[in-house]
Amino acid sequence: MRTVEEHQKVVAGLLKSRAPQDLLLTDTLGLVLAADVVAPLSLPGFDNSAMDGYAVLADDVAGATEDAPVRLPVAEDIPAGRTDLLILKPGTAHRIMTGAPLPAGATAVVPVEATDGATDTVTIRAAARENQHIRRAGEDVTAGTTVLHAGQVISPAALGLAAALGLATLPVLPPQRVMVMSTGTELVAPGAELQPGQIYESNAVMLAAAVRDAGAQATVAPMSADDVDAFRAALAEHAGDADLIITTGGVSAGAYEVVKDSLSDQVEFVKVAMQPGMPQGAGTVNGVPIITLPGNPVSALVSFEVFVRSPLRAAMGRSEPDRPRRTAQLTEDLTSPRGKRQFRRGVLTGDTVSSYGPPASHHLRWLASANCLLEIAEDVTELSAGSTVPVWDLS
Questions:
Q1: Any idea which architecture 48-135 has in CATH?
Q2: Gap between the Cα atoms of 301 and 264, Å rounded
Q3: Is the omega angle on the peptide bond into residue 321 within 30 degrees of 0, that is, cis?
Q4: Domain limits, CATH 2.170.190.11, in the chain
Q5: What is the average pLDDT value for the chain, to the nearest integer?
Q6: Is 312 helix (H, G, I), strand (E, B) or coil?
Q7: Phi and psi angles of residue 238, each rounded to the nearest 5 degrees, phi first
């Protein structure tokens, strides 16, 4: 059997990054910058007021107090957005709003709270120091400065900065486009009526969500019955512009293994020394990478975590694509099959971890409430309470 590490390398070798693209700001959240961003202008772009108040010469109000206020005629009213260039004459004040351009000659802004708020002659009851409540041009960003760096994940704050700099697009590594497809004649869409021997399809919904959680785009193809021609037709019709195809089911050793029967000349089907998730496949179909996962729900999702999630994120430029790994102290005795690496559902609490539910691959209920996977090595058959065990943090 192939080792976990060997199959991880095979899968990672199939996934490639898409060419960088300039995308609209609204389409880039969570993506990775493909190039540095240099500020085309300074922020602020002009001297402006940091407060609602009055632009003055600091010397004109140097002696202002509550008991001895200074009164100045209000020569102009400057709301934010006023575009004409104004000059403040000594001995006058301009009423000014937050963000409005500072008139030439002004050396301070007196907050409206320190005045009577008048619009003709203002009474100022507090002195102002030089540069008080003034935002100077270039104080935040100087034109020509690198403000965002290649490899950086685009956050809401980064988008705000890009927009403030007047940028309509950003150069990014586009998200991977993943098509998910479930196979099995027994599958029925949730909400439909079940016939004897049928089950509701859950893998495609689950894996598409896992793809999106990893930061990629997911589309779900219609379920395919265990018919080679129908499967091939569905694959050809829906693969489209996919960068990766993920199938579930049809890869085991029994009869009616539609994925294996359809793709045996393009996909390498192997057994991986792990539990759950032993039957796996990887290859390309018409040049598109395809990963074929087992059909049992737990096997499918654990396989995605172990083999697909990290290279998928790496292909989108993520510098830390892996789930956080740590060690924790086991709270109970456990056994594991020799020769297989076991990934057990677990609940991580602080520095301790407990296994959660049976290890079998159909117990989806337990995985839905687990927050980690316990990784038990191939050569370990018994673990006692208090042992240290590697943990994949899924939270």
A1: Beta Complex (2.170)
A2: 23
A3: no
A4: 48-135
A5: 95
A6: helix
A7: -110, -10
